[in-house]
Amino acid sequence: MEQKYKKFYVEWWKIQRSTVVGLIVFIVVSGAVAFGGWWAIKHNWFVAQELSDIPPNAARIISFEGDVRITRAATRETIIVTKETWVAAGDTIQTQADGRAIIQMIDNSAYTLGPNSSVVVRDNSSILGGNNVRVSLDDGQLRVRTEDQPDSAKNVVEMRDSETQLNPQTDASFNADAPNGGGEIRISRGSVETSVGGTKTTITENQFASVNNGRIANRETLLPPPRLVSPANMAQVADATGSGASIGLAWQNESGTSLAAYYLQVARSSYFAADSIFIDRNALSSGEFRVGGLSPGTYYWRVKSTARSGQVSEWSEPFKFNVVKREASRRIDVSGWNVENVGGNVYIISGRTLPGLLVKSQDNQAYATADGTFRLQISSQLSEAAVEFSDDRGNRAGFVLSLRNARVLRKF
C-alpha cells in the first residue's frame, strides 16, 4: 500500500507542476496582449485612417474648431472636417464664421486659418532633400509659424498682388480682403521677403506692411492690440435689480503712441459670429465703454486699435464675463457621459443634463438641447478636461472628466 500511494503522489505532483507552469505562461501572455491593446488604443492604432487614399507629401489638419470644409481638387467634392485629416496640393480649405483650423505642412510649419477664411494649398512637396510649401490666401486671416529650415527649403504665401517667402524661425500674419483686393502682412518674429510687381521688400520683426494696387503702400512699426483691463477675464457680474446688469469695459493702449480710434465688439459667442454680436462700435476715442441692460448669460468682448497712419492692429485676445442673478436654487446633474476621440487630440464630449444649460470647456461652448443632450468638441493634449455647466440664474456645476474612459474624476 505504501508503494502505490507513493507512486500516485509522484504522478500527481508532475501533473500539478505542468499546470502551474501553463497558468504562469497564460497569465504573462494575456497581460502582454492586454497591455499591447491598451497601448494601441491610446495611440489611435484602431482609428480608421484610410492610409491607401492619402497622397504622398500631404499636409495634415491636426486641430480644428467649428465648421471647417475641404474641397478636393481631384474630385471637386466638398467634405466637412470631423476628424484629423489630410490636405493635398490643389485642395481648398474654408472656414465658416465659427471655424478655425491648424494645418501642419511637410516642413513642420504650422498654418492657422482664422474664421471666414479660404486658402488653397498650391504645393507641399519634398524634392532632393528640400521642402517646398506654397499656399494662396484668397480671403480672411492666416497665421504662419516656421521653425528651423535648410537653405533649400521654401515656404511661400501668396495673396492677390504679392508673394511672400518666410524665413526660418518666423511668426507672420496675413490678411486678405477679397472684396477690396487689399492685403496686410504682420511680422512678430523673424523676417520675410515680399515680392510685389517684381520688386522685393524685406519685412522684419515687429513690422507691418499693407499691399494695395500692386505695391507695398505702408511699412511701419507693428501696432500691438490693446490690453484688456476690466472686467477681468472670467469675471462674474451680478444682476442685482433683475432689469439687467451694467458694466464698464476698460482697456489700455500698448503701443506707446497716440492712436486714432478703437473698435469694440461684445458678443454672446466666443467666435464672434455675426448673429451673436450685439455691440459693434467703431471710432471710439477713449479706452472705456459702459454697457447696460445685460441679461444673465456669458459674454465675450475684444478690442482693436487704429493708428493715425491708418494701420489697424489685430484683435486682442477675447475676455469673457458672466452675468448672473443673485438667486441660485437649481441643482445641476449630468448623466450618460461619453467621450469620443475623433482623431489626434480632438474629442467630442456628450451626455445629458438640464435643457438649455450652457456647457463650456476650454473656451468652447454648446447648449443642451430640449431633451437635455449636449455635444461639445474640444482639443486637448491632456488625459482629462474640465467641463462647466451653468444657467441664467447663476447656478453652475463643474466636472473634471477623464478623456480615456469618460469617468468623472472630481467636481469643482
Main pleated sheet: 17 strands, mixed
Kindly give the count of domains.
Answer: 3
Shape: flat
CATH class of the largest domain: Mainly Beta
Put simply, the count of helices is 1
- Unreliable sequence segments: 4-10, 46-52
Q: What radius of gyration results from the CA coordinates? A: 28 Å
- Please identify, by name, the CATH architecture of the largest domain: Sandwich
Helix content: under 10%
Q: Within the CATH hierarchy, at the fold level, what is the topology of the largest domain?
A: Jelly Rolls
Tell me the number of strands.
Answer: 33
Supply the helix-strand structural class.
Answer: mainly beta
First-last Cα distance: 74 Å
State which percent range the strand residues make up: over 45%
Query: What integer is the average pLDDT?
Result: 86
In short:
The chain has one helix spanning 2-42, and strands at 59-65, 68-71, 78-80, 85-87, 92-95, 100-104, 110-113, 118-127, 130-145, 154-158, 163-166, 171-177, 182-189, 191-196, 199-204, 207-212, 215-221, 227-230, 235-239, 245-252, 259-267, 277-284, 288-294, 297-307, 319-325, 335-343, 346-352, 358-361, 364-367, 373-379, 384-390, 396-402, 408-411.
